[in-house]
Amino acid sequence: MTLPTTHVSFPAGAVTGESTVLAVHPLDGGRYAVVTGATPFHPLDHTWPDQPADLGTLTVDGVELAVVDCLTGAVGPDGGSDGGPVLVGADIPVRRGDEEWSWLVLHVLAADPGDIVGRTAALAVDAGRRGALSASHSGCHLLALALNEALAPRWRKDPGRTDAFGHPDFDSLAMASSVMDTEASTDTYRLGKSLRKKGFTAEATEEFPALADALPELTEAVNRRLAGWVAADAAVRIDVPGPELTARREWNCELPEGAARIFCGGTHLHHLGELAELRTELRLSEDGSELVAVTRPKRA
Ligand SMILES: [Zn+2]
After folding, report:
1. DSSP character at residue 172
2. Could you report how far apart the first and last alpha carbons of the chain are, in Å?
3. Are 214 and 202 in contact (CB under 8 A)?
4. What is the CA radius of gyration of the chain?
5. Distance from the CA of 289 to the center of ligand 1, in angstroms?
6. Per-residue pLDDT tens over the stretch 164-208
7. If you measure from the C-alpha of residue 120 to the centroid of ligand 1, how many angstroms do you get, rounded to a whole number?
8. CA 78 to CA 249: how far, in whole Å?
9. In sequence order, which residues have a C-beta less than 8 Å from that of residue 158 and are 6 or more positions away?
10. Helices 211-231 & 127-151 angle (0-180, nearest 10)
11. Secondary structure string (H, E, C) spanning 161-177
12. pLDDT score, position 188
């Protein structure tokens, strides 16, 4: 019997839940992965590892076990609870959501929990850490929209991809990596040849200065936009087509300019008034090839 894809409640913001333990798998380094039918835990995604794992506890028969990491596991068509290995993270050879595979939230324990298969586990996520990661993740998406808007005049031609507000989608076209932690979201953009070919201009023209010289002004424009969105206390929700870990979820934010939508597997605030402030800092590498945005939410 193959394990079923885990059902997840984190998209709605859940931090607690109860579910049956379906399997316990040994991992490298003497650690163990507990698989449950459903969970509020957000695991690190193996395809796009932007939001770090939830931490917390599993309680079985009154015994509290610390969840020291949370990973994405996958079982191939021939695998199963006993019929094959659970592959973890980078060892998974297919992309997230491959329908032939089962996709599992792995609650990682530092030691063998014993025979707990079939028991009910009470799952509890560290809510403070989750809240901080959600704030950083919401900040990351808002930065994307504000940065796209601020850089829109620098496109000589339509790059063929626009964001929810119709601006050229610099964020997704130039994105090299996006990493959140409990303090900030750090987004790194590559300003290479391929971006230039798509029409982006970093050099000075008659209309605007070189990107390096424009940074203070750009930063101010982005931060003004972010401050306006926080002040508007815009509502945020995740649209969920199904309960499975692999469902294609979408972040929605009712901004004053209209509804913004971005595909997203992470967790988020419920409304932007949960923040007191959201500010970004833009840095350009010395050779001009990389733009880094560090966006810090301050929670209300
Ligand atoms: Zn996201």
Report:
1. H
2. 48
3. no
4. 21
5. 24
6. 999 999 999 999 999 999 999 999 999 999 999 999 999 999 999
7. 31
8. 27
9. 168, 199
10. 130
11. CECCCCCECHHHHHEEE
12. 98
